[in-house]
């Protein structure tokens, strides 16, 4: 159970690190859009800003394609079965990557396009921030879970050496409660896997 929690934390941290990078990219995209929305910019300047902007949209797609955990792609567009053998729990994680920049027309080559894009990026940043907060909360819960499981294991060992017929019902109940946290963590990873697609949809809307 402890190993499952540790693996879940590692996967959640991998997803969170990817979202941190996505956040940084979106913030740079917002800066470029703000610059392009300035009425004093020439078309040549906007073209240059838009070129970098489009490169950043490609980078978000690259993150979706290359983010991995234990040599497995986190955002690979596939449904992957994850089985935790020691607790007999199986979940299906749906993963997807964002469409390539050619599949949408988000750009900042005119002042009006830039103003529209700023709103879309703000919405994307807000959504990513909320998902990152959820991931951080789950990581903290799992860390407490590991600590409790370690303490529980030590307590059970001490009790077994003193009382052979100890009542295990409550201990098993506590263990199942902690196991459920692991299952919730896997569910959270499933939600995180949808974030690149979510960002792209927000930018297209």
From TrEMBL:
InterPro entries: Flagellin, Flagellin_C, Flagellin_C_sub2, Flagellin_N. One of its GO terms (molecular function) is structural molecule activity. Residues 119-203 form the Flagellin C-terminal domain. It holds the Pfam family Flagellin_C. It is found in: Secreted; Bacterial flagellum. Signal peptide: none annotated. Residues 1-79 form the Flagellin N-terminal domain. GO terms for cellular component: bacterial-type flagellum; extracellular region. Residues 132-159 form a coiled coil. Keywords: Bacterial flagellum, Cell projection, Cilium, Coiled coil, Flagellum, Secreted. It comes from the Bacteria. Flagellin is the subunit protein which polymerizes to form the filaments of bacterial flagella. Belongs to the bacterial flagellin family. This is Flagellin.
